[in-house]
Amino acid sequence: MNSWIILGATSGMARPFIRRLAESGAQLFLAGRRMEELEALAADCRLRGAPKAEVMAFDARDPANYAALIDRFVQEEGTLNAAVFAGSMPEQAQIDATPELIEGVIADSFTGPATFLQMLVPEMETRGAGTVMGIASVAGDRGRLGNYVYGAAKAAFATYLSGLRNRAGRKGVHVITVKPGPVDTPMTQGMKMPFMTTPDAVADDLMRAIEKKRNVVYTARIWQVIMTVIRLIPEPVFKKLSI
Amino acid sequence: MIWTQTDYAGWGRALRASGEVARPESRADLAALSNAPAMGMRRSYGDAALNSGGRAVDMSRFDRLLGFDAETGLLEVEAGARIGDIATAFAPRGWMPAVMPGTGFATVGGCIGQDVHGKNHHNAGSFGQHVAEVTLLQNGVEATATPGSALFEATMGGLGQTGLITCATLQMKRCKGDLMLVTERRANDWDEHLALLDGSTASYTVGWIDATARGADMGRGIVEEGENGAGLMKRRRGAHRVPMDAPHFALAKPVVRAFNWAYFHRVPAHGRTLVRPLEAFFFPLDKIHDWNRLYGQRGFHQFQCVVPLGAAAALKAMLAEIAGSGLASPLAVLKRMGPGRAGYLSFPMEGYTLAIDFPNRTEARVLIKRLEAMTAEAGGRLYFAKDSLAEGAAIRAMYPDLEKWQAEVAKADPQGALATDLVRRLHLRTA
């Protein structure tokens, strides 16, 4: 039996992916903060074919309750898998006004998920199988004027995932780093952004990445090219740009 | 709720709108909405989903399945759920929507608002006839409607004017599985085509018509008959996408003629039977995302009418006009409809329905006007889901229950907050 725990399951990007897991017959553990939304999503998943869909209260900023969630999850037999959609992106201007917000951004996007995975992965390694999928961001590939605190948190998470892949891959656990460009979700609503993709298209890419055991995935694909170019811009030039 | 200034269009892309759009994903989001017309995946061709200058609610992310009773087959869903997703999720378990339109991207709310029909209309009736309950948000207050009530009949095919459709309970029908056994037969001319449609006893029947064929070949096409079945079949995953607006000549006359010739002759003269995935039979174009871009930036119009059984000759005359014009696209469908309809403004009537796409050009608009007049003369009816060119008085006269609908709509939305571009263009609520 294949079981998935999803951190940040109510995120707009996660919904179509979770449904594809449900249709594939996976058991689902949906973790997040908005319980009513999680319950509705769990019911939806059961109707789409998930043999089990349970909800879990998860707050990235409250590591004290991680252990209980993991204890519950590892009771499932078979292959354990984890996907991390948790994260938050306040406007950079908001952070400029209230620098203390940085702590929350880092906790939601990096320290929380990393701590959780650090506690869960040993059991996956013991079983010698499973997939960890972490949602990083193209914003983490280079610090930009518009959202460099969010970018820094995602960069940290991506670096963490890279190391985790190096470690867990030796024991049969595959780690996938996903770097989405702009996706049409509530998080980006009202923003005008280029090469915007949809949660449905992202879900297709994620399912393919799992099947093909990809390591790092950009979605939409074009962002791999764009970010390669952006990373190559020399710093003296880049620091004057507003892209 | 965030309202975003958005440019959007009907599926035909000939009619467009600009205005603020909100896209709720949860019940909490819904509660925070102001009163505005709803839209789904915008698969109506004209302006049924548009509200120029005003606000509109995009329901496409309010799309969860809420509950299913495996004894009765009653499925409760949010209005943004897509009909194709429901079919894909349930067909392997022996249930499918009782009526499905030609695209799986249509939402449940849209199927209700247009009281859509499918390839089984001749024996299953319209979509609304399989709705057990619908939940509406009327000026922030929840109301439910069940079959038999005036509110229900005003809501089925009611163009979203009786309230924002939030949830519905659908009566699903049992099926064997997610495959279709499809028999394709050539119809060599108009008479043969009608005879095959009239004589069909299949659950699902539809005719593709070569609207470029003239003379002795006029009316030729392929009649497809489908029966549901179970089994194993390798499915091709993924979809193609039309990456940009096609140039004008992509659907020029010689291209369409050549395509139609090949499409007709791909079926052997003695016909054939094959097994197809359910989605491929019901939603043949869904594999090509954004196929509407094939018509280029100017977009296209779809003309769809239904005429009474006795007026088949009038339909043949329309086809002669179309074939003579050389303006038709390969997408042309002929079907025999049954009498089933669920609401005051439902499109179906017992007879023959013809649907054809035309690129958005002056000659085509002139031709469509002519076809509309011929429809009226034949005692037929035009379809709000497709219309973008009709005259208000002419199309209103085709809907004898319009006044009953208007009375319910006036009660449900006295401020007129749910009016859309289509409703205003055709003066449906005010005339």
Automatic annotation (TrEMBL), chain A:
One of its GO terms (molecular function) is oxidoreductase activity. It comes from the Bacteria. One of its GO terms (cellular component) is membrane. Pfam families: adh_short. Keywords: Oxidoreductase. Belongs to the short-chain dehydrogenases/reductases (SDR) family. This is Short-chain dehydrogenase. It comes from Pseudothioclava arenosa.
From TrEMBL, chain B:
It holds the Pfam family FAD_binding_4. Gene3D superfamilies: 3.30.465.10. GO terms for molecular function: FAD binding; oxidoreductase activity, acting on the CH-OH group of donors, oxygen as acceptor. Keywords: FAD, Flavoprotein. Residues 13-175 form the FAD-binding PCMH-type domain. Signal peptide: none annotated. This is FAD-linked oxidase. It comes from Pseudothioclava arenosa.
